[in-house]
Amino acid sequence: MAVTKVGTTTLKDKAIKKEINRAPLFQKDNYMWMGIGALVIAIGMFVMSGGKSENPNEFDYKSVYSTTRITIAPILIIAGLIIEIYAIFKKPKRQL
To answer: Domain extents for the chain?
Structure first.
């Protein structure tokens, strides 16, 4: 007949739990990916900006509704947000 201990923890188990609780939430890799995501979002915002017309009384359809602004910039911003989500949910490597 096997005897199992229920509800008891050893000092080693407590020390391991304490170390896990003190570990930082994000590691260097997480911050690196967050920086890359922020950079991609900033590039998307930069690409989307602009469109100033030389003559304010004229509407320049090509500069306002260009493919770069309507398609590429939103794709860059969404890609940056996906990178940010990956950076947040990426599990750090255990160092025990």
So the answer is: 25-89
- Tens digits of per-residue pLDDT, 33-69? 999 999 999 999 999 997 777 888 888 888 888 899 9
User: Do 87 and 30 contact (CB within 8 A), yes or no?
Assistant: yes
pTM over the 0.85 mark: no
- Distance between CA atoms of residues 64 and 60, nearest Å: 7
Name residue, tokens 């490597």: 93
**DSSP assignment of 17-70, as one string?**
HHHHHHS-SS-HHHHHHHHHHHHHHHHHHHHH-----SSTTS--HHHHT-HIII
Q: How far apart are CA 45 and CA 50, in angstroms?
A: 10
Instruction: Report d(CA 34, CA 86) in Å as an integer.
Output: 9
Whether the Cβ atoms of residue 33 and residue 75 lie closer than 8 Å to each other? no
Instruction: In whole angstroms, give the CA distance from residue 56 to residue 67.
Output: 22
